[in-house]
Automatic annotation (TrEMBL):
SMART domains: PepX_C. It comes from Amycolatopsis cynarae. Residues 472-492 are annotated as: Disordered. GO terms for molecular function: hydrolase activity. Residues 329-564 form the Xaa-Pro dipeptidyl-peptidase C-terminal domain. It comes from the Bacteria. The lineage of its organism: Bacteria, Bacillati, Actinomycetota, Actinomycetes, Pseudonocardiales. This is CocE/NonD family hydrolase. InterPro entries: AB_hydrolase_fold, CocE/Ser_esterase, Galactose-bd-like_sf, Xaa-Pro-like_dom, Xaa-Pro_dipept_C, Xaa-Pro_dipeptidyl-ppase/CocE. Keywords: Hydrolase.
Length: 572
């Protein structure tokens, strides 16, 4: 029998039903807590699902929302504002995924539970909720990041009682969640193990999918191949995980899968999105380039009623998650309660333009009034609308030598800058960097960051781009200013050969005001600390290059290194 009690928060009394058991089709059960008002009546339900532990999510009733860089910011407190949800007359259900928290079953691999798709468990849970006396049969979902990804996996299964979803701050391309441009990102480790401001997964029964599927011989070959990568073997934590994966099975599986493919694609929410025909509201904050890209791809793949909000900087939402609830309730009041509040009469896309700090609206992304134009890298670290007229012999390349972080704390950074803008100059869309580079090793990282720099020197990040040199191949989706890399194979670089690398710049919207400059930085490792990184969790860094590498960046008449950026043609 479930435990019932009453809690008071903000003057509101809340009925709490603890540890309800929802049966799944394979015989295991998921554990869930339910929060609702004291009136004994059925209500619409907002469901939150993750492996982070339903008990952790109850901190929402006690802990005021925290923003980075607060040390109390916990990236796993993502299920939503329980008291507010109850006050708005919804029931809030928070459930543990199989293999985590109080639920049964086994969690295997990344976004895969015991051979059962997580969406299948979500289907069974949603239909079980619909039968409960406290539910009126109208169900939506709530929560950011992992919780948001779960919403898409659930909706793709088409449970009859799931009427709409509201996904904010989610991760949708699972390869790009783990490898940005082919460069390993450490945040998945933090979210799973509990590091640097994250509580991590509430593990009860977890297995490595690679250990389940590969023979001991195949597994040993995969581990040996990863340890042959200088970037991996020179990072002690990664070597340790490959030797001793116990209790870090999910991170182990990600390290072993450095290329895109079945492991990431079979449950990629963007691949599943065309199956979704219920209304979907997608939101993401600027400054989180990889998830901005995925959020837009998700929005474009959806087939039913949909909206997209591209929200202001800074990148990380508060924890416990309390933001954008006004938008969420307006959405669910319309789709779950049948209230005609005009939410679908407004433009489909709302984008906040940094710089002027104004909103722009349209029916698509990007807006129609966009023209891709180049800004060329020039001598003396300048960016210009005109290309370099001189040949290589007169326009010597810029360069830097990066020693591995095993022997230095110095991250070398090259930068180029425009002259101050004379009038407000707006850019909205994706971008590309075409870089002609010679390196003296067989691989390196290209990390690009674009800044809006004010006359007083203060600056804000505009967008980023990442590319591992061995992942330079482009695929047939590539268009001007909008490159795509398949990341399905690694092709070593010929040392000493000048190659053109086309780096995808994640979507952005920025208006450079008069007196401001656009500045682009290039490095092969991330700066260890700066104004942007302080807004991210401590583990939000990328695996540094383990090779001692000289980089020569050519920007002459033959090698026109340049940015290709989405200038808007309307007045800002």
């Amino acid at each position: 029998m479930a435990d019932f009690k009453t809690w008071e928060a903000g003057g509101e009394k809340i009925v709490i039903r603890k540890d309800l058991r929802a049966p799944m089709r394979d015989g295991i059960s998921l554990a869930a807590d339910v929060y609702h008002g004291v009136d004994d009546k059925p209500r619409p339900v907002l469901l939150a699902m993750s492996p982070y532990g339903k008990e952790l999510q109850s901190q929402s009733l006690m802990l005021p929302p925290q923003r980075r860089p607060s040390p109390l910011w916990d990236g796993c407190l993502e299920a939503g504002d329980i008291a507010r949800i109850v006050k708005e007359d919804y029931a809030h259900v928070i459930a543990d995924l199989r293999g985590s928290g109080a639920s049964g079953g086994v969690m295997v691999g990344n976004y895969n539970a015991g051979g059962v798709p997580l969406g299948q468990d979500a289907y069974d849970l949603i239909e079980w909720i619909a039968e409960q006396p406290w539910c009126d049969g109208n169900i939506g979902m709530v929560g950011v990041s992992y919780f948001a990804s779960m919403q898409v996996l659930a909706a793709a299964e088409r449970p009859p009682h799931l009427k709409a979803i509201f996904v904010s701050g989610g991760h949708y391309d699972f390869y790009e969640t783990s490898y940005h441009g082919g460069i390993l990102w450490f945040m998945p480790r933090a979210a799973r193990e509990g590091r640097g401001g994250d509580s991590g997964i509430a593990v009860t029964n977890i297995k490595s999918r690679m250990q389940e599927e590969l023979s001991p011989e195949e597994l040993a070959e995969r581990v040996e191949a990863r340890l042959a990568d200088p970037d991996v073997v020179k990072w002690p934590n990664l070597a340790h995980v490959l030797y001793y994966p116990k209790n870090r099975e999910l991170w182990y599986d990600i390290i072993l899968n450095e290329l895109d493919g079945e492991y990431y694609e079979e449950r990629n929410p963007i691949t599943l999105a065309p199956k979704i025909d219920i209304p979907v509201y997608v939101q993401i904050n600027w400054g989180r380039g990889w998830t901005v890209d995925g959020s837009i791809e998700l929005f474009e793949a959806l087939r039913g009623p949909k909206k997209l909000d591209l929200l202001p900087y800074p990148p990380m939402q508060e924890r416990p998650f309390h933001e954008v609830h006004d938008d969420m309730f307006r959405w669910y009041d319309h789709w779950l309660k049948g209230i005609d509040n005009g939410v679908m009469d407004e433009p489909a896309v709302n984008a906040f333009v940094e710089g002027t700090r104004q909103w722009t609206t349209s029916e698509q992304w990007p807006p129609n009034e966009v023209e891709y134009r180049p800004l060329y890298l020039r001598p003396r670290r300048k960016l210009s609308v005109k290309p370099e007229p001189l040949g290589t012999e007169f326009a010597a390349p810029d360069g830097f030598y990066q020693a591995p972080l095993t022997v230095t704390d110095q991250v070398e950074v090259l930068s180029w800058s425009t002259e101050p803008f004379h009038e407000t100059t707006e850019m909205i869309g994706t971008g590309a960097a075409h870089l002609f580079v010679e390196i003296d090793t067989d691989d390196t990282n290209f990390i690009l960051r674009l800044w809006d720099t004010a006359p007083d020197g203060k600056r804000q990040l505009v967008t980023t781009g990442y590319l591992k040199a061995s992942h330079r191949e482009l695929d047939d989706r590539t268009t001007e200013g909008n490159p795509y890399h398949p990341h399905t194979r690694s092709v070593p670089v010929d040392p000493g050969k000048i190659e053109e690398y086309v780096v995808r710049l994640y979507p952005f919207a920025n208006a450079f005001k008069p007196g401001h400059r656009l500045e682009v930085e290039l490095s092969c490792n991330e700066p260890l600390a700066d104004t942007h990184n302080s807004l991210l969790p401590p583990e939000a860094m990328h695996l540094p290059s383990g090779r001692a590498t000289s980089h020569k960046v050519y920007r002459d008449a033959t090698h026109q290194s340049r940015l290709v950026l989405p200038f808007t043609t309307r007045k800002a």
